Amino acid sequence: MGLVSIISLSIIGLIIKDVTGLPCLTDESKTKFEATRKALKYLQTSVDNRIRTLQNDIKSKVKKIDDDMGSLVSDFQKRQWKKYNSDCYYYGSDTLSWFKAEQRCKQIGGHLAKIDDEAENKWVKDNRSKKDNYWIGLTDLKEGEWRWSYDQTLAKY
To answer: What are the boundaries of the signal sequence (predicted)?
Structure first.
């Protein structure tokens, strides 16, 4: 029973107590009281049914979201994606030039990896699917000046 049901029962209880405490009620007053009591009970039942329906609807939607999340995680893992800290890494199996790899990353909504420290560099190397070579987002378009393609900052690591 929800909060609304408890409040409705309390109101009905107070009305019954007040009405039965009045000895001089006319038949018409008793009839009106009984009709009001029935209307309140009907309203209470309607509210209870609506609450149950909403609860079931919410449970159903939460279950669907949970199922969808499970599918998403499974799909994420099947598609060669791996997560490190707050970043996701895609390890593709295509042999591409650096420029083609950068283009491919942009097509799927990302960029070649910008590696910030030794720990991340080790993780990227250790988590590749095969012991092949891989591209990161470091470029020296201006000879001798290494910059990250993602944001053009100078490489610090």
So the answer is: 1-21
